[in-house]
From TrEMBL:
It comes from the Bacteria. Pfam families: ALAD. Keywords: Heme biosynthesis, Lyase, Porphyrin biosynthesis. The gene is hemB. This is Delta-aminolevulinic acid dehydratase. One of its GO terms (molecular function) is porphobilinogen synthase activity. The lineage of its organism: Bacteria, Pseudomonadati, Pseudomonadota, Alphaproteobacteria, Rhodobacterales. It catalyses: 2 5-aminolevulinate = porphobilinogen + 2 H2O + H(+). Belongs to the ALAD family. InterPro entries: ALAD, ALAD_AS, Aldolase_TIM. Its EC number is 4.2.1.24.
Amino acid sequence: MNPVQGPCPVTRFRRTRRTAALRDLVQENTLTVKDMIWPVFIRDGQDIEEPVPSMPGVSRLSLDRVLRAGEEAATLGIPAICLFPYTDPELRTETCEEAWNPENLTNRAIRALKREVPEVAVMTDIALDPYNINGHDGLVKDGVILNDESVEALVKMALAQADAGADILGPSDMMDGRIGAMRAALEGAGHKDVAILSYAAKYASAFYGPFRDAVGASGRLVGDKKTYQMNPANADEAIRLVARDLAEGADMVMVKPGMPYLDICRRVKDAFGAPTFAYQVSGEYAMIKAAAQNGWVDGDKAMVESLMAFKRAGCDGVLTYFAPALARALA
Ligand code: PBG
Protein backbone atom coordinates (compact mmCIF):
# COMPACT_ATOMS: atom_id res chain seq x y z
CA MET A 1 0.00 0.00 0.00
CA ASN A 2 1.33 3.43 -0.78
CA PRO A 3 0.93 5.91 2.05
CA VAL A 4 -1.33 8.27 0.18
CA GLN A 5 -4.14 6.22 -1.23
CA GLY A 6 -4.95 2.57 -1.88
CA PRO A 7 -4.09 0.98 -5.22
CA CYS A 8 -1.87 2.45 -7.99
CA PRO A 9 -1.67 4.80 -9.81
CA VAL A 10 -0.50 6.83 -6.88
CA THR A 11 -2.50 10.02 -6.41
CA ARG A 12 -0.37 12.73 -4.87
CA PHE A 13 -2.29 16.02 -4.74
CA ARG A 14 0.84 17.74 -3.53
CA ARG A 15 2.37 17.44 -7.04
CA THR A 16 0.23 20.33 -8.27
CA ARG A 17 0.85 22.36 -5.15
CA ARG A 18 4.65 22.10 -5.31
CA THR A 19 5.39 25.49 -6.93
CA ALA A 20 3.55 28.75 -7.41
CA ALA A 21 3.46 28.13 -11.17
CA LEU A 22 1.75 24.77 -10.76
CA ARG A 23 -0.65 26.17 -8.19
CA ASP A 24 -1.58 28.96 -10.61
CA LEU A 25 -2.18 26.45 -13.39
CA VAL A 26 -4.71 24.42 -11.44
CA GLN A 27 -6.41 27.34 -9.66
CA GLU A 28 -10.15 27.05 -10.22
CA ASN A 29 -11.43 30.53 -9.37
CA THR A 30 -10.11 34.03 -9.87
CA LEU A 31 -10.62 37.14 -7.81
CA THR A 32 -10.80 40.38 -9.74
CA VAL A 33 -11.80 43.89 -8.85
CA LYS A 34 -14.12 43.79 -11.89
CA ASP A 35 -16.58 41.76 -9.83
CA MET A 36 -16.80 44.21 -6.94
CA ILE A 37 -19.47 46.75 -6.05
CA TRP A 38 -18.27 49.39 -3.59
CA PRO A 39 -20.88 50.54 -1.00
CA VAL A 40 -20.35 54.20 -0.06
CA PHE A 41 -22.04 56.22 2.71
CA ILE A 42 -23.00 59.76 1.80
CA ARG A 43 -23.99 62.83 3.82
CA ASP A 44 -24.72 66.50 3.28
CA GLY A 45 -22.10 69.24 3.50
CA GLN A 46 -18.75 70.07 1.94
CA ASP A 47 -15.27 68.66 2.47
CA ILE A 48 -16.44 66.13 5.03
CA GLU A 49 -15.11 62.64 5.62
CA GLU A 50 -16.72 61.53 8.84
CA PRO A 51 -15.32 58.20 10.07
CA VAL A 52 -17.77 55.47 11.07
CA PRO A 53 -16.27 54.19 14.35
CA SER A 54 -17.55 50.63 13.99
CA MET A 55 -16.16 50.39 10.43
CA PRO A 56 -12.45 51.30 10.53
CA GLY A 57 -11.40 52.85 7.22
CA VAL A 58 -14.97 53.72 6.18
CA SER A 59 -16.36 57.28 6.31
CA ARG A 60 -19.52 59.14 5.45
CA LEU A 61 -18.62 61.36 2.51
CA SER A 62 -20.02 64.74 1.52
CA LEU A 63 -20.97 65.01 -2.16
CA ASP A 64 -17.67 66.54 -3.27
CA ARG A 65 -15.85 63.60 -1.66
CA VAL A 66 -18.25 61.12 -3.23
CA LEU A 67 -17.13 62.41 -6.61
CA ARG A 68 -13.55 61.72 -5.56
CA ALA A 69 -14.59 58.20 -4.58
CA GLY A 70 -16.17 57.84 -8.04
CA GLU A 71 -12.90 58.93 -9.66
CA GLU A 72 -11.02 56.52 -7.40
CA ALA A 73 -13.34 53.70 -8.49
CA ALA A 74 -12.69 54.55 -12.14
CA THR A 75 -8.93 54.61 -11.58
CA LEU A 76 -8.92 51.36 -9.63
CA GLY A 77 -11.20 49.58 -12.12
CA ILE A 78 -14.08 49.10 -9.68
CA PRO A 79 -17.11 48.90 -12.00
CA ALA A 80 -19.85 50.07 -9.63
CA ILE A 81 -20.58 52.16 -6.56
CA CYS A 82 -23.63 51.68 -4.34
CA LEU A 83 -24.93 54.73 -2.45
CA PHE A 84 -26.26 54.73 1.12
CA PRO A 85 -27.44 58.06 2.56
CA TYR A 86 -27.14 59.37 6.09
CA THR A 87 -30.29 61.50 6.19
CA ASP A 88 -30.58 64.55 8.44
CA PRO A 89 -32.73 63.66 11.47
CA GLU A 90 -35.24 66.48 10.64
CA LEU A 91 -35.93 64.85 7.28
CA ARG A 92 -36.90 61.50 8.84
CA THR A 93 -40.67 61.22 9.12
CA GLU A 94 -43.38 58.62 9.57
CA THR A 95 -44.45 59.05 5.93
CA CYS A 96 -40.89 59.00 4.51
CA GLU A 97 -41.55 61.44 1.63
CA GLU A 98 -37.88 62.46 1.55
CA ALA A 99 -37.26 59.00 0.04
CA TRP A 100 -38.74 60.06 -3.32
CA ASN A 101 -37.71 63.72 -3.25
CA PRO A 102 -35.92 64.24 -6.60
CA GLU A 103 -33.50 66.54 -4.77
CA ASN A 104 -32.68 64.21 -1.89
CA LEU A 105 -29.07 63.40 -1.10
CA THR A 106 -28.98 60.14 -3.03
CA ASN A 107 -30.56 61.59 -6.16
CA ARG A 108 -28.17 64.54 -6.14
CA ALA A 109 -25.25 62.13 -5.74
CA ILE A 110 -26.47 59.96 -8.64
CA ARG A 111 -26.70 62.97 -10.95
CA ALA A 112 -23.28 64.29 -9.92
CA LEU A 113 -21.60 60.90 -10.36
CA LYS A 114 -23.20 60.24 -13.75
CA ARG A 115 -22.10 63.70 -14.89
CA GLU A 116 -18.50 63.45 -13.65
CA VAL A 117 -17.64 59.73 -13.94
CA PRO A 118 -20.22 58.24 -16.34
CA GLU A 119 -18.18 55.06 -16.82
CA VAL A 120 -18.76 53.97 -13.21
CA ALA A 121 -22.14 52.25 -12.71
CA VAL A 122 -24.25 53.75 -9.94
CA MET A 123 -26.35 51.43 -7.82
CA THR A 124 -28.85 52.53 -5.20
CA ASP A 125 -30.54 50.99 -2.20
CA ILE A 126 -34.33 51.02 -2.11
CA ALA A 127 -35.80 50.83 1.39
CA LEU A 128 -37.34 53.44 3.66
CA ASP A 129 -35.01 53.01 6.66
CA PRO A 130 -32.79 56.05 6.01
CA TYR A 131 -35.92 58.24 5.91
CA ASN A 132 -38.13 56.56 8.48
CA ILE A 133 -38.58 57.96 11.98
CA ASN A 134 -38.59 54.40 13.36
CA GLY A 135 -35.76 52.86 11.33
CA HIS A 136 -37.93 50.35 9.46
CA ASP A 137 -37.68 49.56 5.75
CA GLY A 138 -41.43 49.95 5.23
CA LEU A 139 -44.25 52.20 6.43
CA VAL A 140 -45.42 51.37 9.94
CA LYS A 141 -48.92 51.64 11.36
CA ASP A 142 -49.73 50.63 14.93
CA GLY A 143 -46.53 48.64 15.12
CA VAL A 144 -47.24 46.72 11.88
CA ILE A 145 -45.07 47.08 8.77
CA LEU A 146 -47.54 47.62 5.94
CA ASN A 147 -46.70 45.69 2.78
CA ASP A 148 -48.70 47.15 -0.09
CA GLU A 149 -48.57 50.76 1.11
CA SER A 150 -44.78 50.36 1.44
CA VAL A 151 -44.52 48.99 -2.09
CA GLU A 152 -46.27 52.12 -3.42
CA ALA A 153 -43.75 54.30 -1.60
CA LEU A 154 -40.80 52.18 -2.78
CA VAL A 155 -41.96 52.44 -6.39
CA LYS A 156 -41.92 56.25 -6.11
CA MET A 157 -38.42 56.01 -4.69
CA ALA A 158 -37.31 53.74 -7.54
CA LEU A 159 -38.71 56.10 -10.19
CA ALA A 160 -36.97 59.11 -8.64
CA GLN A 161 -33.64 57.24 -8.65
CA ALA A 162 -34.14 56.09 -12.24
CA ASP A 163 -34.99 59.67 -13.26
CA ALA A 164 -31.74 60.80 -11.61
CA GLY A 165 -29.83 58.34 -13.79
CA ALA A 166 -29.17 55.29 -11.60
CA ASP A 167 -27.89 52.28 -13.56
CA ILE A 168 -28.89 49.60 -11.04
CA LEU A 169 -31.68 49.72 -8.48
CA GLY A 170 -31.23 47.60 -5.36
CA PRO A 171 -34.50 46.96 -3.53
CA SER A 172 -33.43 45.85 -0.03
CA ASP A 173 -36.77 46.23 1.75
CA MET A 174 -38.08 42.62 1.48
CA MET A 175 -41.72 43.66 0.93
CA ASP A 176 -43.67 41.19 -1.22
CA GLY A 177 -44.41 42.22 -4.79
CA ARG A 178 -42.01 45.14 -4.96
CA ILE A 179 -39.94 43.85 -7.88
CA GLY A 180 -42.97 43.38 -10.14
CA ALA A 181 -44.40 46.75 -9.17
CA MET A 182 -41.09 48.51 -9.80
CA ARG A 183 -40.49 46.77 -13.10
CA ALA A 184 -43.95 47.71 -14.37
CA ALA A 185 -43.52 51.32 -13.24
CA LEU A 186 -40.08 51.57 -14.85
CA GLU A 187 -41.39 50.23 -18.17
CA GLY A 188 -44.33 52.61 -17.98
CA ALA A 189 -42.04 55.58 -17.38
CA GLY A 190 -39.72 54.73 -20.26
CA HIS A 191 -36.90 53.48 -18.03
CA LYS A 192 -36.61 50.23 -19.95
CA ASP A 193 -32.87 49.83 -19.46
CA VAL A 194 -32.61 50.34 -15.72
CA ALA A 195 -31.41 47.11 -14.09
CA ILE A 196 -32.76 45.68 -10.85
CA LEU A 197 -30.44 43.81 -8.50
CA SER A 198 -32.89 42.41 -6.01
CA TYR A 199 -31.88 41.80 -2.43
CA ALA A 200 -33.84 38.58 -2.86
CA ALA A 201 -32.56 36.44 0.01
CA LYS A 202 -31.98 38.95 2.76
CA TYR A 203 -31.80 37.59 6.28
CA ALA A 204 -32.74 39.27 9.57
CA SER A 205 -29.12 39.42 10.67
CA ALA A 206 -27.04 40.63 13.59
CA PHE A 207 -24.29 41.50 11.10
CA TYR A 208 -25.95 44.76 9.97
CA GLY A 209 -25.06 46.57 13.22
CA PRO A 210 -22.26 48.84 11.97
CA PHE A 211 -24.29 49.78 8.85
CA ARG A 212 -27.14 50.99 11.04
CA ASP A 213 -24.61 53.19 12.88
CA ALA A 214 -23.38 54.52 9.55
CA VAL A 215 -26.83 55.54 8.28
CA GLY A 216 -27.99 56.73 11.71
CA ALA A 217 -30.69 54.07 12.12
CA SER A 218 -29.30 52.24 15.18
CA GLY A 219 -30.86 54.20 17.99
CA ARG A 220 -34.15 54.55 16.10
CA LEU A 221 -35.09 51.02 15.18
CA VAL A 222 -38.23 50.05 17.05
CA GLY A 223 -38.27 46.27 17.50
CA ASP A 224 -36.64 44.13 14.81
CA LYS A 225 -37.07 43.30 11.10
CA LYS A 226 -38.14 39.67 11.49
CA THR A 227 -41.59 40.13 9.92
CA TYR A 228 -40.00 40.97 6.57
CA GLN A 229 -36.37 39.79 6.53
CA MET A 230 -35.69 36.04 6.42
CA ASN A 231 -35.21 33.63 9.27
CA PRO A 232 -31.53 32.57 9.33
CA ALA A 233 -32.72 28.97 9.79
CA ASN A 234 -34.24 28.82 6.29
CA ALA A 235 -32.69 27.82 2.96
CA ASP A 236 -35.48 26.46 0.70
CA GLU A 237 -37.33 29.73 1.21
CA ALA A 238 -34.36 31.59 -0.32
CA ILE A 239 -34.77 29.57 -3.52
CA ARG A 240 -38.47 30.40 -3.68
CA LEU A 241 -37.74 34.11 -3.11
CA VAL A 242 -35.15 34.22 -5.88
CA ALA A 243 -37.51 32.39 -8.26
CA ARG A 244 -40.23 34.92 -7.48
CA ASP A 245 -37.99 37.98 -7.92
CA LEU A 246 -36.55 36.72 -11.23
CA ALA A 247 -40.08 36.02 -12.47
CA GLU A 248 -41.13 39.55 -11.46
CA GLY A 249 -38.34 41.16 -13.47
CA ALA A 250 -35.11 41.21 -11.45
CA ASP A 251 -32.01 41.08 -13.66
CA MET A 252 -29.64 40.06 -10.87
CA VAL A 253 -30.16 38.67 -7.40
CA MET A 254 -28.38 38.99 -4.09
CA VAL A 255 -27.81 36.91 -0.98
CA LYS A 256 -27.19 38.92 2.19
CA PRO A 257 -25.23 38.68 4.49
CA GLY A 258 -22.41 36.87 2.70
CA MET A 259 -19.96 34.76 4.65
CA PRO A 260 -22.48 32.99 6.93
CA TYR A 261 -24.70 32.24 3.90
CA LEU A 262 -22.34 30.77 1.30
CA ASP A 263 -24.52 27.65 1.13
CA ILE A 264 -27.37 29.87 -0.08
CA CYS A 265 -25.14 31.50 -2.72
CA ARG A 266 -24.22 28.09 -4.11
CA ARG A 267 -27.80 26.85 -4.17
CA VAL A 268 -29.08 30.03 -5.84
CA LYS A 269 -26.39 29.91 -8.53
CA ASP A 270 -26.97 26.22 -9.22
CA ALA A 271 -30.75 26.56 -9.30
CA PHE A 272 -31.04 29.55 -11.63
CA GLY A 273 -27.71 30.38 -13.25
CA ALA A 274 -28.70 34.04 -12.94
CA PRO A 275 -26.18 36.78 -12.11
CA THR A 276 -25.74 36.16 -8.39
CA PHE A 277 -24.24 38.58 -5.88
CA ALA A 278 -23.42 38.39 -2.21
CA TYR A 279 -23.24 41.32 0.17
CA GLN A 280 -20.29 41.05 2.53
CA VAL A 281 -22.02 43.25 5.07
CA SER A 282 -20.79 45.78 7.59
CA GLY A 283 -20.47 43.32 10.47
CA GLU A 284 -18.38 40.94 8.37
CA TYR A 285 -16.10 43.82 7.40
CA ALA A 286 -15.89 45.01 11.02
CA MET A 287 -14.95 41.53 12.29
CA ILE A 288 -12.03 41.20 9.88
CA LYS A 289 -10.88 44.77 10.58
CA ALA A 290 -11.10 44.34 14.34
CA ALA A 291 -9.14 41.10 14.33
CA ALA A 292 -6.53 42.64 12.05
CA GLN A 293 -6.18 45.72 14.24
CA ASN A 294 -5.50 43.43 17.19
CA GLY A 295 -2.88 41.55 15.22
CA TRP A 296 -4.97 38.38 15.42
CA VAL A 297 -5.25 37.84 11.66
CA ASP A 298 -3.42 39.26 8.66
CA GLY A 299 -6.05 41.74 7.41
CA ASP A 300 -5.14 41.69 3.72
CA LYS A 301 -4.93 37.93 3.57
CA ALA A 302 -8.22 37.49 5.42
CA MET A 303 -9.85 39.99 3.04
CA VAL A 304 -8.64 38.19 -0.08
CA GLU A 305 -9.57 34.76 1.28
CA SER A 306 -13.05 35.90 2.33
CA LEU A 307 -13.73 37.42 -1.10
CA MET A 308 -12.39 34.39 -2.96
CA ALA A 309 -14.86 32.28 -0.97
CA PHE A 310 -17.73 34.10 -2.71
CA LYS A 311 -16.34 33.25 -6.14
CA ARG A 312 -15.90 29.62 -5.09
CA ALA A 313 -19.51 29.57 -3.84
CA GLY A 314 -20.70 30.57 -7.30
CA CYS A 315 -21.15 34.33 -6.95
CA ASP A 316 -20.60 36.52 -9.99
CA GLY A 317 -19.85 39.52 -7.81
CA VAL A 318 -19.69 40.89 -4.29
CA LEU A 319 -20.75 44.11 -2.60
CA THR A 320 -17.89 44.83 -0.22
CA TYR A 321 -16.48 47.74 1.74
CA PHE A 322 -13.08 46.22 0.91
CA ALA A 323 -13.45 47.04 -2.83
CA PRO A 324 -10.74 49.75 -2.96
CA ALA A 325 -8.44 47.84 -0.58
CA LEU A 326 -8.84 44.72 -2.72
CA ALA A 327 -8.01 46.70 -5.86
CA ARG A 328 -4.80 47.87 -4.21
CA ALA A 329 -3.94 44.41 -2.87
CA LEU A 330 -4.38 42.83 -6.31
CA ALA A 331 -2.56 45.58 -8.23
C1 PBG B 1 -31.42 48.75 4.43
C2 PBG B 1 -30.15 48.03 4.33
C3 PBG B 1 -29.41 47.43 5.37
C4 PBG B 1 -28.21 47.03 4.79
C5 PBG B 1 -28.25 47.34 3.44
N1 PBG B 1 -29.47 47.96 3.17
C6 PBG B 1 -29.69 47.30 6.81
C7 PBG B 1 -30.88 46.63 7.30
O1 PBG B 1 -31.58 45.92 6.58
O2 PBG B 1 -31.17 46.85 8.48
C8 PBG B 1 -27.08 46.40 5.55
C9 PBG B 1 -25.73 46.47 4.89
C10 PBG B 1 -24.59 46.21 5.79
O3 PBG B 1 -24.73 45.80 6.95
O4 PBG B 1 -23.45 46.44 5.33
N2 PBG B 1 -32.56 48.12 4.18
